Amino acid sequence: MGAMFRSEDMALCQLFIQPEAAYLSVSELGETGAVQFRDLNSNVNYFQRKFVNEVRRCDELERKLRYIEAEVRKDGVPISDNLAELPRAPNPREIIDLEAHIEKTENEIQELSQNGMNLKSKYIELTELRHVLEKTHMFFTENQDSFLLLLYQQEEANDSITKALINEEAQNPAVSIRGRLEFVGGVINRERVPAFERMLWRISRGNVFLRQTELDKPLEDPATGNELYKTAFVAFFQGEQLKKRIKKICIGFHASLYPCPTSNTERQDMLKDVRTRLEDLNLVLSKTQDHRQRVLHNVAKELPNWSIMVRKMKAIYHTMNLFNMDVSKKCLIGECWVPIADLGTVQNGLSEGSRQCGSSIRSFLNVIHTDENPPTFNRTNKFTRGFQNLIDAYGVASYREANPALYTIITFPFLFAVMFGDAGHGLILTLFALAMILQEKKIIAQKSNNEIGNLFFGGRYIILLMGLFSIYSGLIYNDIFAKSVNIFGSSWRASYTRNDVTLNETLNLLPEEKAKHYLQYPYPLGVDPVWSLAHNKIVFQNSFKMKLSIIFGVAHMIFGVCMNLVNIKYFKKYSNLFLEFLPQLFFLILLFAYMTALMFIKWVLYNASSDQLLRRPGCAPSVLITFINMMLFKEAKVSLGCSQYMFDGQAIVQKVFFFCGIACIPVMLFGKPLYVMYTKKVRSAGKSYSNGSASQDIELQHQGLSQNGESSNEKPAAGGHGEDDSFGELMIHQAIHTIEYVLSTVSHTASYLRLWALSLAHSQLSEVLWNRLLRMGLGAEENDYVKGVLLFIFFAAWAFFTIVILVLMEGLSAFLHTLRLHWVEFMSKFYEGLGYPFQPFYFKSILDAEDDEE
After folding, report:
1. Residues ≥6 apart with Cβ < 8 Å to 519
2. What is the dihedral of CA 193, 195, 199, 205, to 10 degrees?
3. Residues near 774 by Cβ (< 8 Å), separated by ≥ 6?
4. What range defines the domain where residue 44 resides?
5. Would residue 434 count as lying in a domain?
6. Residue 325 in contact with residue 50, Cβ under 8 Å?
7. Helix, strand or coil, per DSSP, at residue 193
8. Looking at the whole model, is its pTM more than 0.70?
9. Which of 309, 333, 430, 759 is most buried, by the most CB atoms less than 10 A from its CB?
10. 414, 463 contact by CB (below 8 A)
11. Could you tell me which residues are beta bridge partners of residue 376?
12. Are 300 and 79 in contact (CB under 8 A)?
């Protein structure tokens, strides 16, 4: 957890690498993920960089791998993505072999695909020809007479000479009216048949006789693999001009025309020949497909390794393009941010790269001094990563700033549980989180694309703690699925007789009546279960939960203000300790922490068993009214014998606290601007009397200290002010921050009342769901069988709405409100969040990001 307290200490390093060892050295650094490289060629066009050709080679290899993968997936060959260990990037000698192997595989698959496509095209042509010969056999025995009859009816009205010729030639069916009767046979897509038929009728004015029949089975498109439904047709006509038109129409409709003899004997012989050729071709296709499957199965085993190796190669060359070449062109120079704790790892990686290439000159790194703000790097594990992501979603911490994620691990699930507050619902969350944690290896291996599922899985440890804390808060509230449990026995005792209870429908069971006859003792854990039967249950819960929310809120805000002390000490901004931190802390404690102290005083001093009327609950003053009167200097109206104050000297204490709290505001408003202007004058006076001794300034800069004793490496925060700002600008800036803080103490305290509101709403909604659904099934006045069925139905409905509404919807609402309390009310007291994340050159992160994009 020490690494979570603040970000890692970073150093800017220069890498000096021999060109022949650069590839292997960068590969070793990519495996460790310990460096973030800077671009030293930002002013150079990317296409003019040194290793752009190598990047293009990697792009070409990726294109080939995409083609191979598409062919493998098209044939349904499984590709295993679960590699036991990711392969390392190939060394320069292995790259040539890898390129040759991938190119050979691509050519082989292309050749197999082309041969298979040609064979399938030939197979389809022969299949269509077979269908034409089989389906159109009957057309040649019946259609010529039908065609002549239609032609006769059409031209009968023209003239008697034409009619005589038709009657004369009708006795010889093989001869047409003006010549021999011709036909065209072929196959066309089924959806184009209606349009094809209309077009033939229009161009021939009805002088074409078309017969068609559908193919029984669909054919496979060799190019796409889709199923094609086709129809065989024969068109009878006469005349060469009409024949040319029909062929053009067939070409336009992408119909396949096949030769079909008019003689029955020739057709049968051709059909036998086609069937024989189809059998031979089918055997060749089967052998070709088997060979293709063997090749693709062998390729599928190596494809994941090839893909990862090529992607690593490309990442390495991309990174090498960020390097600069020295003047002698004998050394590559790179700059990178490195966590100081990993400097040894980086040096070992450079040494390993030089050793692998056999270079006699070792690569090395050099830590350089810089005034730039380093990136922020918080080292996390699978448990803390989710909490760190919650903080980074608001803003990445400034360099070496106190990290709120460490405290969020406890405060976030705790505040959530205060609002959720049901042990039964918390148990559901816990079981759900445990299921994800126990199956996390299996879920990670699946690499699901479900965004919502991945979101829940990423926060599995957050959900686990939220469930555990909700179980605890549910036990404190004594609330388990809207019901209370009597574990230790109630501490309440009735002082009424049996007749009093039976004769009166409603009795006021006053605590003072009980206190007179029985010894009081507090309930051991949480709320006494007798409150679930009380008519004033909501009144009690309102008061109890509202006060708890204010107490937790003020404590949370005070803790946030105290976190400023950590930053002040580390960055050595000791002026902020007296001019900002202490006034803010005193203002919050003297006013709002005092209000919470009054709640505890009221709980201790006032009770129903007190012998003094002044200490009875009826005389207890309202904490809210007392606080308002304190701010307005008003006197409260109280009953006779009661006092508006809880203890002696409270009026004086309140006045002292009020004036001291108000006095903190001018300190916050004017303190820092006056101090900055004073230090500027002292520094300018010191420079005028230093007699030009620049060596002292250089020495101070070397030590990282300015002359006012503060760190000279500190950069003004975004929106901050440098030394050249005028007093007016400083005052405006400080006035905004002061007004924001003073007003936010009021608004943020009120904002914590959401703990009370959501907790009360959740418990009441859960109780309504129980009373309106489950009790209806339990209280049904039916026989046992009908009651069992009703209970089953109502329990299913109750369980469904409990999961959907009370756990999912209410849980999401409580989660968002808890997130807001941390981002706004807590972190605004000390957290700047002006940094930028450390993004190391890490192969695993690069591969995961590319997989997410795909």
Report:
1. none
2. 80
3. 794, 795, 798
4. 2-104+307-368
5. no
6. yes
7. helix
8. yes
9. 759
10. no
11. 837
12. yes
